[in-house]
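Slack export, channel: ligand-projects

TW: morning all. Re-posting the request from yesterday since it got buried. We need the structure predicted with the small molecule present, not the apo form. The ligand is flavin-adenine dinucleotide; the SMILES is in the block with the sequence. No rush, but it would help planning for next week.
GE: picking it up
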Amino acid sequence: MRVAIVGAGVAGAYLANILPKEHKVDIYEMKEKDKWWTVCAWGTSEPFISELVRKAGFKFDDYVLHRGRSMVVKIGEEELRIKLIGLVTYDKHKLTEDMLEGHNVFWGKQIKSREQLMDYDIVVDATGFHRSLLPKIKDDICIPSVEYQVRSDNLPYDDFVIKPYPGLTGYWWYFPLGDKTAHVGAGDYYGKYRGELENFIRDYGCEVIRKIGRPVRVSPPSRCLPFYTDGVVGVGESIGTVYPLLGEGIIPSMQCATIFAENMENMEAYTNAVLKHFSIYTKVYNFIRAKLFNNFHIVNMLPTLLSVFLYMKRSQTRYGLEVRLSDFFRIVTKL
Ligand SMILES: Cc1cc2nc3c(=O)[nH]c(=O)nc-3n(C[C@H](O)[C@H](O)[C@H](O)COP(=O)(O)OP(=O)(O)OC[C@H]3O[C@@H](n4cnc5c(N)ncnc54)[C@H](O)[C@@H]3O)c2cc1C
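GE: finished. pasting the full token output, ligand included:
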């Protein structure tokens, strides 16, 4: 098959490396190479991602920047300390760049419709938040976010810190990158972070290496249908593979690419496999949506919350952090 992958983010780059070699793959990226950047805080779970990365022929260990020991969660005046069991930051930009190496990448080519790529048997919409080729999503929920990559001799923390906003409408984060650098960012549905990041930069005498940002889609796959139409198929955040509670989309994008590679001859099977794999995201989304729009009632939500907790507890290695019932309920009910 001739395959065009539109979007050189983690989903597109990973997919290019795991598709069976008999396919002819081209990648189209709207940014010029020197302007292209993997907008992200670069946090992920080392034990889990290592295996995915190995399947693409890379060694994750080579890209790790900081291995977390604990994460402080600030809830008002209170602080929870969560033990980390694999959460790291890694040089996502370098790894994605290395994954693109040796592939046929057309930089600076913005694709707006399937008609531009009629020579291909299939076109993959891996354009993330943009979802440039698939139909628009009704009532799509995307959380605006901004992030600074900073350097300073006076950084106040040496490990992960997050501060969820009241109503769980988003959170502020500090992710260490080693060598006196960090990502300081925030995402919030109502943009509550305005000014806060700039205060941090001023207070700690930070040099800004770069300012980046874009909205993160938290609508789950079940709300992002169709995944396939007129020879275009979505992979990654374009079809909602971001864990809505955390805004975590690296591993899910790679998992989605894997599901695509296994089902590329049968789009119905692909759709069903994605819906099945990410079914818990719908529950998490229902909870986040209730919080966002002030419809949250603990009694009505209890079954959903319990299944989300049990899922997180079972998936501790997957998320790289220890999940305790008391912490979970403190965070979801206090805010
Ligand atoms: C500020 C921020 C912090 C985050 N932090 C984390 C984190 O720490 N850990 C985590 O797991 N997840 C994080 N995420 C989420 C994660 O980064 C994304 O879910 C993931 O990168 C999605 O991968 P993707 O390849 O589907 O899309 P993207 O990474 O967004 O890649 C899409 C690519 O498509 C290109 N493109 C778009 N439209 C077109 C077009 N029309 N033609 C050609 N090219 C096009 C874009 O330029 C881009 O290169 C964060 C997201 C944001 C915004």
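GE: first-pass observations. DSSP finds ten helices and 18 strands in the chain. The longest strand covers residues 170-178.
TW: perfect, thank you
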